[in-house]
Each structure stands twice: as C-alpha cells, then as structure tokens.
Design goal:
The protein is α/β, with parallel strands linked by helices. It contains 4 helices and 10 strands, in the order βαβαβαβββββββα. A 5-stranded mixed β-sheet has the order 4-3-2-1-10. Strands 5-6-7-9-8 form a 5-stranded mixed β-sheet, with helices on one face. The chain is globular, with a radius of gyration of 16 Å. The relative contact order is 0.18.
Amino acid sequence: MTKYFTADLHLNECRIGTNNLYFRPFQTVEEQNRTIITHLNDMVRPQDELYIVGDVAVDAAGVGLLQQVACRNKILIVGNHDGDKLNLLQKYFKEIYESLDLRVGDVDCHLNHYPLNHVPDRFNIVGHIHGLWKVKPNMVNVGVDAWHFRPVSEAEILFVYDSIKNHYDGHVFVHC
C-alpha cells in the first residue's frame, strides 16, 4: 500500500481556460474532470491510500464524480469548499479530518488545507493555493494545479522533504 496526496481538485469547476482564476488549461469542464480522475486512477491503486487535502468539488454533481475514483481508502482533510458538502462527501471517504498528523516514511507530517495553518515541528502537506507555488521551507503544496493534475506519491513527498532539508541553501527561498 502506497500513500498519495492531492488537493484542490475542484471537480466540476467551471472557471477554466486561459481567462480564469486558476489558469486550468481545459476546453470543457468534462475534460478537466476526466483528466483529474484519469490521472488519479492511473497512479493510485484500489488498495492504496489517497489523502485529499481539501477542496474536492464545487457542487454535488462534482462530489458524485468520486464514485469513478478506484481507490477505496480515501481520506479527506477539509478545505474551504468542502464544509457545505460534508454530508455528501462522507459517502466517499473512509475518514474526514480538519487536519491530520501522519508519518510518511520516516518523516512526521502535518496535513492541513491552509498553508497559514502550518506547524513548525513537522513537514507540512498543504493545498489551497493551487499553482501559486510548489514548495516553501518545511512545506509542500500538493494541489493538482502545481503537479500537472496528478496526485503526489509518498516517494515524491520524501524527495521534496529531503531536497528542502539537505540540499537547498539559504538562497533558494526569499525571506521577507
């Protein structure tokens, strides 16, 4: 069993194309939904664990698309677009949390939708900011917009953690 992470799927999101908030390069909502679900099913096996770090869908029909995701072990970390749909989302998730502390390999991680809710003593796995950035000191954004609309594997999380901790110097991140 492998762990995978993703965020900000926004299934059924109609703000697509080049003139939109998220710059999602799809011609239709159906193309967007199909791409995200296909990438999930291409990588995540039914016995794996899929952590969605918030913002699953924009409406009930988008939530219903989760039935197409083959992975049975889905865990939700609630995002700002999920709260009003929790009763619908419960059907598709094994567990639902506001935030979660989780061991990934040998790294203690904290999962929370909001980067501002990071914790200093763990590696933070976040979403919410779409493709604005991918990594910051002690944190990775697993939003689909930052990862070519595919989930991030446990191995990739550990690679990013190792890169930040052991290979990036003080000139990589701007500190204001």
